[in-house]
Amino acid sequence: MTFLITAVVLVGVLCAFDLLLTFAVLRRLREHSAELARLAGQPRFAPYNPGALVGRTLPQTDTDGVDRPQLVAFFDVNCDACHEHAPQFAVAARTHTAMAVVSGDGPKIADLLKAVGGVASVITAERADSLVKAIGVEAFPTFLRVGPDGTIVEAQTELSALAEMTSAR
Predict the structure, then answer these.
(1) How many CA atoms, within 13 angstroms, populate the side-chain half-sphere of residue 43?
(2) Of 36, 84, 100, 102, which one has the greatest count of Cβ atoms within 10 A?
């Protein structure tokens, strides 16, 4: 008889514990539902559209008398995609007048400058930051195809998307 009473009490304790866990899960689900409902009304960030840069004029830059660039790349030192795309830009820069704008500083800047420095004029430091603001670049890397008058003809975040630049290789 003692064994039966112990078993009934143990089952009762387990059921009470299970009931407490169920209430805790239900409370947590209500909190999540309320948070999701709150976030549903929040504004979302608009995706970056580099095409919005088309039609703007590239400011005249002092790059040691180099002609106005046909191809411009905006890189950031801390952007991993920039390091991945820099060699591809260097290949395209061999056949075009090109300029690389490298913003940021730190130990990784040497890698970017090594990748693009020999084939493109390079703007760094504060001049790079002011050019980024003047053009309105919001994401890195950004690649521009520039017309002879300095007007941005095409802007992309992938160099391969600049059809004329990559097909001329």
Answers:
(1) 3
(2) 100
